[in-house]
């Protein structure tokens, strides 16, 4: 494809992608890499050696369909920051206390990253990098190209976060459980302090551990980026796409749902990691179930639930009488200890327990799957919406409570989970939420409509397809203006002062 008046083929434009090293961040960026390559661009993806090992086969498979994505390795300085050797992905951290070390290691990549791009990528068009790699705004500046931030979440939650940061509505409530309203948003959105991500609340231990500086620098860098690529679609959250653009002031291109670029069964089955279950056995089992009858339960790649909570989930699913697939993270032995006594025997034929990694989008897109119990990580939430499924919203941390608000209160396609005063969900509440999700026809109808809209958005002529085209045009126009010396320079964030 040659752009009008450009005279240069898009293959001569090289986009640099740098995802954050966590499954929930890398998986959508791999999809974005393939989408950009499908639009005819040359794409360079930078990642650490151990991540490159599982990423290369995925991108090589796509290469046969004319897509060109090159993977460049960058060494990850585990030893320098006290991380165990080989800890190159957030989900491999042996304890949460090491998160700050992980973030410090990513900061040390600034110099080698710049060197690598200078050596290996001729005339790059732009850098698309994760919000956790805020310092890439400086790299982009010295290279004279735009830095595009990928937050990995919805415009809705970006708007909520910006509102909390700017207006601090959580400061004046009397307790962690008293709801406060987020002023200035298109809907009446209420959260509690207990639901806020630790860093918004100002948890003193985390702050003392240096999170405060790292997060503040990230926020500033992201605010000084040229724009933002979003894994969402305009029709899903149009008021928040507009709010993000016009009130928060970020140039934004919603180009999703990016998971829909996985059309072949193997791509669906091996998205992220190789599944811990034989996918054809899983599909055969689903084929044997009635349409829209199976409940799929999965809490993403990072969350760990307490053993008692897992027992309650198991007993709640058993009591519901519904067929289900339940994904439990951890190795086989651990998982067997967590399961209620005699559980697998009792639910044999009706319930499938996957111990490890599930082929999630393969399961979600199967006609027998009828509902999704999710922790509301954005990828999972959007994948559930894309499959046209009603959900049980069970947020645990980070921006998940905001995503839960979107699906429960704004889109009205999810049942909120009810925690008891100890922060636990008893088996009765699990059973009730699952039964309500499966039995609510109106909710299912709305979810189905959103699923159809999602598919239309990525088709040729759809809003996400158009946004991707506009994004590429914008980047090419920027490059052209730069060669004529008229491009706006990405400004650096001001230095962080200790008083903030
Ligand atoms: N995922 C998967 N199989 C699993 C668990 C997760 O394929 O067993 C994928 C899921 O489809 C999603 C991503 O991993 O794309 C998880 O991202 P999300 O934002 O939902 O949650 P996080 O793991 O970041 O908390």
TrEMBL record:
InterPro entries per the UniProt record, alphabetical: Glyco_transf_N, UDP_glucos_trans, UDP_glycos_trans_CS
E.C. number: 2.4.1.-
GO MF annotations in UniProt: UDP-glucosyltransferase activity
Annotated CDD domains: GT1_Gtf-like
Enzyme class, UniProt record, top EC level: transferase
UniProt keyword annotation of Secreted present: no
Glycosyltransferase N-terminal domain ranges (all copies): 14-258
SUPFAM superfamilies per the UniProt record, alphabetical: UDP-Glycosyltransferase/glycogen phosphorylase
Keyword terms, alphabetized: Glycosyltransferase, Transferase
Keyword Glycosyltransferase belongs to the record: yes
Family: Belongs to the UDP-glycosyltransferase family.
Protein name: Glycosyltransferase
Organism of derivation: Amborella trichopoda
């Amino acid at each position: 494809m040659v752009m009008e008046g450009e005279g240069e083929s898009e293959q001569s434009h090289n986009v640099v992608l740098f995802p954050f090293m966590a499954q929930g961040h890398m998986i959508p960026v791999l999809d974005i890499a393939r989408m950009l390559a499908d639009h005819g661009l040359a794409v360079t993806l930078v990642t650490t050696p151990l991540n490159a090992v599982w990423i290369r086969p995925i991108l090589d498979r796509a290469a046969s369909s004319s897509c060109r994505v090159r993977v460049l390795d960058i060494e990850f300085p585990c030893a320098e920051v006290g991380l165990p050797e080989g800890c190159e992905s957030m989900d491999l951290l042996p304890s949460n206390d090491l998160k700050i070390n992980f973030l410090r290691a990513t900061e040390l990549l600034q110099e080698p990253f710049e060197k690598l791009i200078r050596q290996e990528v001729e005339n790059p068009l732009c850098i698309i990098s994760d919000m956790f790699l805020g310092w890439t705004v400086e790299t982009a500046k010295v290279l004279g190209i735009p830095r595009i931030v990928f937050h990995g979440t919805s415009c809705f939650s970006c708007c909520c976060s910006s509102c909390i940061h700017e207006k601090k509505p959580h400061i004046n409530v009397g307790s962690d459980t008293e709801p406060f309203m987020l002023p200035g948003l298109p809907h009446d959105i209420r959260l509690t302090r207990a639901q806020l991500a630790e860093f918004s609340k100002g948890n003193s231990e985390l702050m003392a551990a240096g999170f405060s500086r790292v997060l503040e620098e990230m926020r500033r860098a992201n605010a000084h980026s040229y724009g933002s690529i979003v894994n969402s679609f305009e029709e899903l959250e149009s008021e928040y796409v507009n709010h993000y653009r016009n009130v928060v002031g970020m140039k934004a291109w919603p180009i999703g749902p990016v998971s829909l670029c996985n059309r072949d069964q193997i791509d669906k089955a091996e998205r992220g990691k190789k599944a811990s279950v034989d996918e054809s056995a899983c599909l055969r089992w689903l084929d044997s179930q009635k349409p829209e009858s199976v409940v799929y339960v999965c809490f993403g790649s990072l969350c760990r639930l307490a053993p008692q909570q897992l027992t309650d989930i198991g007993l709640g699913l058993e009591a519901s009488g519904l067929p289900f697939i339940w994904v439990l993270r951890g190795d086989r032995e651990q998982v067997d200890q967590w399961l209620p006594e005699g559980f697998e025997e009792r639910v044999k034929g009706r319930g499938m327990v996957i111990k490890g990694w599930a082929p999630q989008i393969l399961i979600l897109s199967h006609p027998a799957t009828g509902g999704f119990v999710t922790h509301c990580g954005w990828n999972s939430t959007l994948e559930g919406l894309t499959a046209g499924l009603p959900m049980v919203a069970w947020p645990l941390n980070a921006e998940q409570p905001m995503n839960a608000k979107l699906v429960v209160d704004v889109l009205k396609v999810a049942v909120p989970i009810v925690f008891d005063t100890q922060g636990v969900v008893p088996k009765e509440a699990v059973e009730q939420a699952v039964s309500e999700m499966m039995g609510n026809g109106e909710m299912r109808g709305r979810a189905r409509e959103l699923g159809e809209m999602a598919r239309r958005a990525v088709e040729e002529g759809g809003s996400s397809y158009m946004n991707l085209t506009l994004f590429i045009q914008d980047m090419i126009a920027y490059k052209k203006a730069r060669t004529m010396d008229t491009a706006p320079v990405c400004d650096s964030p001001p230095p962080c002062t200790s008083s903030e």
